[in-house]
Amino acid sequence: MSEIRSIFITGGASGIGRATARLFAQRGWRVGIADVNDAGLAETMALLGGGMAQRYHLDVRDREAWNEALSAFVEASGGRLDVLFNNAGIGTGGPLADTSFDDVDRTIAVNFTGVVNGAKLAYPYLARTPGSCLLNTASASAIYGSSGLATYSATKFAVRALTEALDGEWHAAGIRVRDLVPSFIETPLLDGVSANSNRSIRETVTAAGLELTPVEAVAEAAWAAVHGTRLHTYVGKTAHRLAFAARWMPGSLRKRMKRTLGG
């Protein structure tokens, strides 16, 4: 088995995935990036400078594509997979009653089923790599359900629950399971328009009084999570404030969420 550590990152064409790929590559890791956005993947590869980096076209809903990408990357990495970073996700906003079932189904399939697919299919590779880690991207929306982002919040709650469950299940196999719980991040994901509205997700978030966090902060948090002992790594002031409020001031948080959409 190669001595060079390796990380496979979904959603590597932009945002958190790109920033994390750059950070790990700069610190000597072999990096595999995967996404459905081929143009974005090419841009990330250019930033990584080639070398110990590979890219893969991957729709996280496609299990066969997962198998092919993971097999190819592990072969390129000399038989090891130190970290699977389940990071790919999409955002949909607007009241649930106004959101199409197509948008609901796609959000659940990408944000949660895609994470389950990656975890299950990467398990054999992680189990044979000493000290390996499964890292999932949750969200501040996994702390308290966000009005106007109901389906998105539900998928991120599910990712958090999966992380907690697998932390127990996979302990005996020597696999550490972690998640990131970042504030809303300054990425193109926020430019999506809420259902039946001209309001973007970015505008919904800022209307709730929540600031945005730079992707570089999340990349550093990913590094810390992979090398640390925390199950949940909160990133950004909003995530920490929401965690505090959910525990100590749930009534105030409920009132804020009711005001977000004018309820």
Automatic annotation (TrEMBL):
The name this protein goes by in its record: NAD(P)-dependent dehydrogenase (Short-subunit alcohol dehydrogenase family)
Q: Gene3D superfamilies in the record, alphabetically?
A: NAD(P)-binding Rossmann-like Domain (3.40.50.720)
Which keywords appear in this protein's UniProt record, sorted alphabetically?
Oxidoreductase
Per the record, the domain of life is Bacteria
Protein family (similarity comment): Belongs to the short-chain dehydrogenases/reductases (SDR) family.
Record field: transmembrane:
none
Pfam families membership = adh_short
Question: Does this entry carry the keyword Cell division?
Answer: no
InterPro entries in alphabetical order? NAD(P)-bd_dom_sf (IPR036291), SDR_fam (IPR002347)
Q: Which is an annotated GO molecular function term of this record?
A: oxidoreductase activity
The keyword Oxidoreductase appears for this protein: yes
